[in-house]
Fold:
Amino acid sequence: MRCACAAAVVVVDVIGLFHPGVLDALDVRVWVDVELDTATAQGKARDIRLGRDHERLWDEVWVPKEGDFTARFQPREAADVVFTPPGG
Structure:
């Protein structure tokens, strides 16, 4: 994906960007501290609201990959800021 726009601040929301190979390219790394079960439930609920049927994708692809990435690369520890949402 390419952006042809100019901006003073660009916010990118993807855990995979906490990969060690790209950490130096990020000025500020913010980790939103939410349990995987909670994030999964919120993502599934969002997809249902949008009329998307991604239940299997969540269960068979996203959750296992998210767990593996977190175990291998410890993205929370690479964060400059850790944010825990209220009730999180």
User: Anything to note?
Assistant: The chain has two helices and two strands. Residues 55-73 form the longest helix (19 residues).
